[in-house]
Amino acid sequence: MVASPRTDKFAAHLRMLKDRSGRGYDRLGKEAGVSGSSLHRYCSGLSVPADYRVVHAFAKVCGASAEELRELHRLWALADTDRDVPAATVKEDPEPEAGAAADGAEVPAAEVPASPAPGDVTPAETVPERTAKPRRYRFPDKLSSRSAILAAVAAVVLVAGFVWMPVGSIAGDAPAADGELLYSPACKSVSMGQHDECVREVQTLLTRAEGRLAIDGDFGPETLRRLTAFQVLAGLPATNVVDDATKKALYARKVSMTTWSSARVAKRVREVFVEDPGTAVAVARCASFLDPLYVLPNTNGSRNWGVFQISDARLRELHGTPLRAFDPDWNIRAAHRLWSVRHDFHDWPSCEAALKSTSHSTPVPTR
Fold first, then answer.
1. Helix runs in the chain, H state only
2. What is the pLDDT of residues 316-325, one digit of tens each?
């Protein structure tokens, strides 16, 4: 794996949690269900775990708050994108090549200094040999009168064509409807990691559909979760990108993401899990923050859904679907069916381990 600034930020967040806990890698690893040596690699930035559940369990045993868990998931998702990226593409600020301006525009040859500036004396043996530059075609200094007339006519036709051509018809795109930014060529693709007005438009449309998220123009994990939930509720494939079908559904405004409040979810969990209501609510809060539309994507392409974050595999066993998993009552009752197999929370190992560790540890003082 290639180190990157995003991997470093993720590792720094892990180290902060570890240092604050006051515990060593081996003890934290035992409580989180992972080896101490693996935790050391993650905190050192040497590797990024493929499964976010490991990160979640580690953060929980360190006493991370809900806000810290959200930030940690954002950092993990960004660091995970660099897992298989070649080293050359990870640099944030590549050095401009000699003879090039900072913004990438070529510097005319006359502006490139032929010798060091005064005071910047370079030893003769370190001066690189000059290499021949490829010859470029030079246009004639003067055009014939006929050529000049033809060039002028062509320019007028070209400009007129661009003025007449409707926005969005470039490269075969459909024209952008009035006020529908996502149909413009600039928003042809909107996906994870993007930061622009196209993302802000998606977030605005999601909030109009009663989706709970911030409008900041940054396509991070929270936007991805809301987008996935919207696509499922709209009966569309969960593609992780804002494709044409999703744009149409967003602008149609026929999908509502209105759902239960966290208080109502907690109340229903207690009603269903009469055997151990307190632990059940704590597990649900650990898994999804009691959010019925919570989605957690995994690096292997699978996802976890709803209040109790039921996995794709478990959904198949329960004859459920992602859409059914977003029904909080169905999700809670399905989780109780899983619990009833052994009368424990073995299907949520990360949350169960975190609950056991926090119940036997001293609370972290707050400032």
1. 5-21, 25-32, 36-44, 52-61, 66-80, 145-164, 197-208, 221-233, 244-252, 262-272, 277-288, 312-317, 322-325, 328-342, 349-359
2. 999 999 999 9
